[in-house]
């Protein structure tokens, strides 16, 4: 139909990715003075590259000598190069930590039990218990009770102390 208006769609704007290296160079002084610069900068010792020689496990090659020159297809040429070239391997320093959290390496020394903390208050209570058990071992009678000490002018007691009385027969 000739009377139907044609809609012209505008092309979306092309968004260029950020040039990370360029931004690092431009804001070098700000990054150097930043307390969290380790989060921005790429660690240089994070990975290592190595070249492993291709080991062939056969007496004669399975690829003809001039196969790469005679190949017409780019795909075939690249397949041949992949098959006969050495391996370039990237080893990451923290690769052990990149998997599932349940399979993290246990490299740190783990303590089997938490260290026991002894406080002065605990030692005093232990001394009182030792004294009570000592009195019962000698055949004496141990009586324990509460002693309330308070201000004489107030009806509310301020402090509370434990009183242990040993009665020997």
Automatic annotation (TrEMBL):
GO terms for molecular function: guanyl-nucleotide exchange factor activity. Coiled coil: none annotated. Pfam families: DOCK_C-D_N. GO terms for biological process: small GTPase-mediated signal transduction. It comes from the Eukaryota. Residues 13-122 form the Dedicator of cytokinesis C/D N-terminal domain. Signal peptide: none annotated. PANTHER family: DEDICATOR OF CYTOKINESIS DOCK, DEDICATOR OF CYTOKINESIS PROTEIN 9. This is Dedicator of cytokinesis C/D N-terminal domain-containing protein. It comes from Micrurus paraensis.
């Amino acid at each position: 139909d000739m009377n139907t208006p044609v809609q012209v769609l505008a092309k979306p704007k092309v968004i260029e990715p950020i040039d990370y290296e360029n931004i690092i160079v431009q804001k070098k002084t700000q990054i150097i003075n930043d307390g969290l610069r380790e989060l921005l900068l790429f660690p240089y010792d994070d990975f290592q590259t190595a070249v492993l020689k291709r080991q062939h496990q056969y007496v004669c090659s399975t690829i003809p000598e001039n196969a790469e020159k005679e190949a017409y297809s780019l795909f075939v040429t690249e397949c041949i190069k992949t098959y006969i070239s050495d391996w370039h391997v990237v080893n990451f320093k923290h690769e052990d930590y990149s998997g599932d959290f349940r399979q993290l390496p246990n490299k740190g020394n783990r303590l089997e039990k938490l260290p026991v903390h002894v406080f002065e208050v605990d030692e005093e209570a232990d001394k009182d218990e030792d004294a009570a058990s000592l009195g019962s071992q000698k055949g004496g009678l141990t009586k324990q009770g509460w002693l309330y000490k308070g201000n004489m002018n107030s009806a509310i007691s301020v402090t509370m102390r434990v009183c242990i009385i040993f009665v020997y027969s």
